[in-house]
Amino acid sequence: MTEDNRVVERTGWAPVRHFAERSVLGLLVVTAIGLTFGVLLLLVRFHWQPLLDLDRSVADGLNRWASGSDAVVAVLQQISSFGGRGTMLPLVTLLVVVLLIRRRPRPAIYLLVTGAGALIMDPSLKALIGRLRPVVEAPVADAPGNSFPSGHALGSMVVYGMIVLVFLPAVRRRWRPWFIGLAAVVVAAVGFTRVALGVHYLSDVFGGWLLGLAWISVTAYAFRIWRREAGHPTPPLTGGLEPESGPDLRPAPAEGAVLPHPWAKAAEILVGWVFVFGMLYLVGYTVNRWEPAFDDRVVRWLQTFRTPSLDHLSWLASKAGDTHAILIISLIFCPLALALWRQWRPVLFLAFTMIGELTLFLCAAAAVDRPRPSAEQLDGQMPTSSFPSGHIAATMCLWAAIAIIVMARVRQPWRWIFPALAVIMPFGVALSRVYRGMHHPTDFLGAILLTAAWISVLWFTVRPNAHAETAAEAAEEAAQIADGRPLEPVR
User: Fold this and answer.
1) Burial 183-218, CB ≥16 within 10 A → b, else e
2) What Gene3D superfamilies does the entry give (predicted)?
3) Among 380, 61, 19, which residue's Cα sits nearest to residue 198?
4) Mean pLDDT in the chain?
5) Long-range pairs of 69-72 with CB within 8 A, sequence gap ≥ 24
6) Collapsing DSSP states into helix, strand and coil, what is residue 253?
7) What phi and psi values does residue 179 have, to the nearest 5 degrees?
């Protein structure tokens, strides 16, 4: 063989051969998974007795274990929620937005197509098989629809599996086994909870896992074919779907130390927390002993305006400041902030803000122990005392922290939406809480003091906007390069 032929073999045919070998192996694996699912489906459809006996035995045993404790049931339901549509649909949507921000449209399309396929297959197969859900001795949960396959098992396998395939390049090599293992643990835990809660048989869960694994295998293979047709290499999946996307998907590759001298900063934050708590306790103690007459008068005056429509509107406004709403907004903002500005410091600032607010509120409320207003309380008995208002403080801290972060990094006029929200949202929550008889006006004052003092402490210790200009300029330069525009100075 001539040297030229060897070069052709080395540079031309070798990649094709490697791709063909991997394709055949992948096809065999997918075929084996599909056949296993098909056999299981037939056994379920034709009521194979040994499988039915095993399903009932496992379902009854886990039901007896779970039904003995309300705490166990609550934990199982919480874990199960990680495989529900209420968690996975927002998660996939958020990750698609992050990928589009980082200018990775192909993985974003992969997430959308693979997720949509799972959404279609789940109800279709359930309707086709028509298997009824388990009947257990002590029901602790219920679920609509038929039983086979488990939608939670199918969805969790697909969603967390494709997240691993897409984001694996962003994970350092030594952490990749842990990343994959964490996803596997979540998928296994979700499947276990569905059987333990008595809403699925063991074969339902295995069927969902097999179907989900087959589906992400097929879509991953189709993605690799797409890459090859576009002229990109097709390395093994051990490096993820797009190994070259690693630098774009890493959260903050160019950031140095997030907090220089972390132990000194931790001490400063702790000292600041103690001083803020002392101020809140002093003000709360004074208000509790003073008992200003206008506090109850304002609550009773607002009570005269109550109507069913205003009651419902105030309930909605109050919900904007509860723990779930605050947590959801935080979990949406933090990944978007990382994708846009590729800095951990603003995320750390927001996390410290909300953790500090929660601990300060709980400790101050327990120490002051102020009674709720004497007016009718529409939300019933609450587990904490009245001063300061946790709903108002959490809303103020959240939107004030977001406004501080955004205003330093965005130059467009729409950035003023966030300072407006930092005023409008807490005011709406405060009005609803007083209207519903849950807080005095001076509890609102306590929330203002908590927010102002705690954010001031974090402003001088964490310094959330350090290097904000650098991050904004880097993001703009990356956008100019990706769009093929000539580099222009960022103002």
Assistant:
1) beebbeebbbbbbbbbbbbbbbbbbbbbbbbbbbbb
2) Phosphatidic acid phosphatase type 2/haloperoxidase
3) 61
4) 83
5) none
6) coil
7) -60, -50
Above pLDDT 70, what percent of the chain?
A: 88
**Domain ranges, ordered by start, for the chain:** 3-249, 268-479
268-479 maps to which CATH number?
1.20.144
| Alpha-carbon gap, residue 57 to 61, rounded angstroms | 6
- Over residues 350-370, the pLDDT tens digits come to 999 999 999 999 999 999 888
Tokens of 58: 């496992």
pLDDT of residue 481: 44
The SS3 of residue 428 is helix
Which residue type does 412 have? Answer: Q
Predicted TM-score (pTM) of the model is 0.80
d(CA 488, CA 224): 36
* Cα–Cα–Cα angle for 92, 320, 438, rounded to 5 degrees: 150
pLDDT at 82 over 80: yes
Give me the percent of the chain exceeding a pLDDT of 90. 29
State how far the Cα of 133 lies from the Cα of 143, in Å rounded to an integer: 8
Point out the least confidently predicted range of 80-89, 215-224, 311-320: 215-224
406 touches 355 (CB < 8 A): no
Phi/psi class of residue 240: alpha, beta or left (left: φ > 0; alpha: ψ in -120 to 50)?
left
Question: Angle at the Cα of 68 (from 67 to 71), degrees rounded to 5?
Answer: 85
Write out the H or E segment, with its range, that includes residue 5.
helix 3-8
Contacts of 208 (CB under 8 A, 6+ apart): 149, 150, 151, 152, 153, 154, 155, 157, 191
The CA distances from residue 405 to 51, 121, 246, 260, 415, in Å, are: 57, 42, 26, 19, 10
How many alpha carbons fall within 13 Å on the CB side of residue 153? 25
First to last CA, the chain: 61
Amino acid at 256: G
The pLDDT tens digits of the residues spanning 251-298 come to 877 677 777 788 888 899 999 999 999 999 998 888 888 777 677 788
What letter would DSSP give residue 13?
A: I
